[in-house]
Amino acid sequence: MTNSDSIARLQAEGWQVKAYTMSSSQTYLQGILFALPFVLLAGGMYRVFLLERAVLLDHTSLIFLGIIIVSLPVHEGLHGIGWKLAGRLETGEISFFIRQGMPMCTCKAVLDTRAYLTGTLFPFLILGGGSFLFLIAFPGTVSLLTAMVNLVLPGADLAIAYKVLRSGAVRIADSPDQAGFTGAFYKGEQQDEGV
């Protein structure tokens, strides 16, 4: 069953649907704004407390490129793992694909809010949190760049999580085409108009 089939079935049962998706420019802007406090925290902590014992390397652009090449597919894979575990999903309900040269992951099942948030925030918690701890344990060029990449990548995920919490949604379907979720489901008149 696809997201649109699930949405149609829930609408037939009396649930209301509202889309919460972002354009590419909104995704980048909101992603940067939501990630900025964490990036500033990591960078400030590194500069003030860790720089003295940091291992500094040359070729930062190659290191940065390598970190991005590894982090992007791992980030998307963690979305899938989070949704699969939290939603107790069957095989085939998570889709991995490449769009415009970028790895992507989408959940085809309609999930409750908690399960959707788990999958959405899993890369931030695992990669972002792990990179932050790696920076503290082994300060240097590699750990700083790893922390910066893995704190910026989930910025849009943080924006989506904020929208989920503000929406008051009970059930959520991930958007297969855009950043965000295609429907927040409500029974009756519980919809939050301020989002």
Automatic annotation (TrEMBL):
Whether Transmembrane helix counts among this entry's keywords is yes
In the record, which residues are listed under signal peptide? none
Q: Which keywords, in A-to-Z order, does the entry hold? A: Membrane, Transmembrane, Transmembrane helix
Transmembrane helix among the record's keywords? yes
- Source superkingdom: Bacteria
Q: Where are the transmembrane segments?
A: 28-49, 55-74, 116-138, 144-165
Q: Which Pfam families match?
A: DUF3267
Name-wise, this protein is DUF3267 domain-containing protein
